[in-house]
Structure formats: structure tokens, C-alpha cells
Amino acid sequence: MKIWLTSLLFLCSLAAHAGNQLEEPLSNSVKAQMQKSISDSAAPRLVFATEAEGLHWLGEMSKRLQKRMPNQEMREDFLRTVHYEASRAGLDPQMVLGLIQVESGFKKYAISSAGARGFMQVMPFWVRTIGAPDHNLFHMRLNLRYGCTILRHYIDIERGDLFRALGRYNGSLGRAQYPNLVLGAWRKHWDYQPPPTLGV
Questions:
Q1: Which 3 state secondary structure label does DSSP give 18?
Q2: CATH class as words, domain 2-199
Q3: Is 111 in a helix, a strand, or coil?
Q4: Are 113 and 13 in contact (CB under 8 A)?
């Protein structure tokens, strides 16, 4: 059993791109704001002007994700949660999908060589810093909430510079490879423009 578990963890670590955020001291006000974001308990939902827009987005993204996440119920729950958590953090949900593609390949139990976990490859020190002891980073919604909150924090630090914020998220600030991978995945696989008829 122990050998099987070790092998499973090793295979999961191979699936993760990196996710090596650096632990840095936070001011009390920033820490309190991030803790408040993590403690949100509202039910995830699509955030669109109309129900038709939301359903169109969900259907389109679901088709694109189907091969990676075959179970429709799980896939749609995941997409609703991504959209909700990204939107409440002021992030583009499609960009977040690009980040998840690069970080974990949409593998819920991915573990990086640095110990980052889950879809958005969150480092465990964040649970101690802004979370609660019982927070499980493999829990889908918690992982997405942490990841979006952390990326929002890095964007704020970098005064809106997404490229540099992505570098911080990955622990590779100053190197272009990771931000380019995320932005490329976003544009190639997740870029979305609603049909004009939905806006009428």
C-alpha cells in the first residue's frame, strides 16, 4: 500500500508544471483582506448579465474541457466555480482556465516537486498564512478560491501588471517562460467572445 501511494504521489508531481509561490510577509491589512476572501461561503454561480449569456459560456467552455474532464456534472460544477471565484477576485475566468491548464493540466490531485497542490497549484504555507487548519487544498472550490485570491494579491503588488503577477504566482518572477505559457494557453484554448445576438 505504501509503495502504491508513493508511486501515485510521484506521478501526480510529474503532472504539475510548477506553482512555487514564495512565502513572503504580509501586512496585517493585506492578510485580513485575503482571509476575508478565503472565508467566503456563498454558493458558486455564473456571473453574467443574463442567464442566456451564462449558459452559452458554460456550454462553450464545457465543450473545450470535455476531453480533459469527461464527467459532465463535475465539469460544469468546476466551470461554474472557476467563473465565480475568478469574477469575485476581479480576474478573467478564461485567463484562470489558461493558468490551470499550465499549472496542473486540470488534474485535481496534482502535486508539484515544490509541494504545490491541486488545480491551481497552491503552496501549503498559504493555509497557515490566510486560511484555517482544516482547509484541504485538494478540495476543488477551496483550491480555486485560494488560487484566485493569491493571483489577485500578486496583481495588486505588481500594480496591475499581469505578466509580472504570473511570474510571482509561479515563483519565476523576471523570467518570461511561465507568463507566456499561461497567456498562450488562454488565447489558444480559452479565449471567448459571446455571439452578438446574446448582447441584444
A1: coil
A2: mainly alpha
A3: strand
A4: yes
Which tens digits make up the pLDDT trace of 1-36?
A: 444 444 444 444 334 455 567 777 777 777 778 888
Q: Quick one: CA torsion of 181, 30, 117, 143, rounded to 10 degrees?
A: -90
Q: What is the dihedral of CA 92, 98, 99, 100, to 10 degrees?
A: 110
pLDDT in tens, 143-171: 999 999 999 999 999 999 999 999 999 98
Residue 137: partners with Cβ closer than 8 Å, 6 or more residues away: 117, 118, 122, 124, 127, 143, 146
With beta carbons less than 8 A apart as the criterion, state whether 122 and 131 touch. no
- What's the pLDDT score for residue 14? 37
User: Rounded to the nearest 5°, which phi and psi values hold at 122?
Assistant: -90, 130
Distance CA 12, CA 3 (A): 14
d(CA 161, CA 97): 18
Interacting residues of 62 by C-beta distance below 8 A, sequence separation 6+: 72, 75, 76, 79
What is residue 22's DSSP assignment?
A: P
Look at residues 29, 16, 51 and name the one whose alpha carbon lies nearest to residue 147.
16
- Strand stretches in the chain, DSSP E: none
Q: What is the SS3 assignment for 117?
A: strand
Provide the grid cell at 52: 442566456
Q: Determine the 3-state secondary structure of 122 from DSSP.
A: strand
